[in-house]
TrEMBL record:
<dbReference type="Pfam" id="PF01881">
    <property type="entry name" value="Cas_Cas6_C"/>
</dbReference>
<dbReference type="InterPro" id="IPR049435">
    <property type="entry name" value="Cas_Cas6_C"/>
</dbReference>
<protein>
    <submittedName>
        <fullName>CRISPR-associated endoribonuclease Cas6</fullName>
    </submittedName>
</protein>
<dbReference type="InterPro" id="IPR010156">
    <property type="entry name" value="CRISPR-assoc_prot_Cas6"/>
</dbReference>
<dbReference type="InterPro" id="IPR045747">
    <property type="entry name" value="CRISPR-assoc_prot_Cas6_N_sf"/>
</dbReference>
<comment type="similarity">
    <text>Belongs to the CRISPR-associated protein Cas6/Cse3/CasE family.</text>
</comment>
<keyword id="KW-0694">RNA-binding</keyword>
<keyword id="KW-0051">Antiviral defense</keyword>
<feature type="domain" description="CRISPR associated protein Cas6 C-terminal">
    <location>
        <begin position="118"/>
        <end position="249"/>
    </location>
</feature>
Length: 264
């Protein structure tokens, strides 16, 4: 399930860094630990977007000028979602970067019908490689049009699906069909500006800062509907629980896909 958490922005014009997933990851982890439920201490099968609202860009980052700011949060475990929201809404004010936010309400996104061929856009960057502290492995560029790119995503996806405990060994074996196909028109338009869809981002893990390469581009994925659903809910690639790899369906109208959500 995917929910949209809506905040009141108390200081219009304030800003966050362009890529602020690490700030959100720290906040979310803190809220999870705040609830003091040992069951969720190391839980990581969730995904989230960056903050959304009316923004303007400066060299400091993204300045927000809307009265409301939205965060998309996604997880298949409804009990965990309710636990997280309950602890979040116990806070009267939170700070993210320079933003002063007040939790306001929650909307539930309708569950889409996912088939074997789906066109997606990236709400947050997809990460393929695990970084090392002592080299630049995590920053290596891999062409999205190559089999290597698709194969790495497949391996990551199958590993995460196995770790989730949601699928049997027989099911995992049956999910052999998997092909990532980037939008060729999009790549052609920006072929001379590669960095626009493949940038270097900060990642904090165990209090250590790493640098990783993330890819943000439209694509079509050919895979079983169960695989599509897992990725739509849990994110694609590595470090989904740190805000990477969130997807949305291309050419959809997000404003038509929500209802009020109660987590009491």
């Amino acid at each position: 399930m995917r929910v949209r958490i809506i905040f009141n922005l108390k200081n219009k014009g304030s800003y966050v860094p362009f890529h602020h997933q690490y700030l959100l990851a720290q906040l979310i982890k803190g809220i999870i630990l705040k609830g003091k439920n040992p069951q969720y201490k190391d839980f990581s099968f969730y995904n989230f977007s960056g903050l959304k609202g009316q923004t303007k860009i400066s060299r400091n980052g993204l300045h927000f000028y809307s009265s409301k700011v939205t965060l998309v949060f996604s997880c298949a475990d409804q009990e965990f979602v309710n636990y997280f929201l309950k602890n979040l809404f116990e806070l009267t004010q939170i700070e993210i970067g320079n933003l002063s936010l007040q939790p306001d309400s929650v909307e539930l996104e309708q569950k889409p019908v996912l088939v074997e061929a789906m066109k997606y856009i990236c709400i947050s960057p997809i990460v393929l490689l695990t970084p090392n502290f002592y080299d630049d492995q995590g920053k290596k560029f891999i062409n999205p049009e190559t089999d290597q790119f698709s194969d790495l995503l497949y391996e990551t996806t199958m590993n995460r699906m196995e770790q989730s405990g949601m699928f049997t060994a027989e099911q995992l074996t049956s999910f052999f069909k998997f092909q990532f196909v980037p939008d060729k028109d999009y790549l052609f338009k920006i072929k001379d500006t590669q960095k626009k869809f493949a940038r270097i981002y900060p990642l904090y893990d165990q209090d250590v800062k790493y640098e990783i390469r993330g890819y943000t581009l439209p694509f079509t994925l050919y895979a079983a509907p169960e695989v599509q659903q897992f990725l739509f809910t849990h994110g694609m690639g590595l470090y989904a629980h740190k805000g990477f790899g969130m997807l949305d369906i291309a050419n959809s109208d997000p404003s038509q896909r929500t209802t009020a959500y109660s987590f009491e």
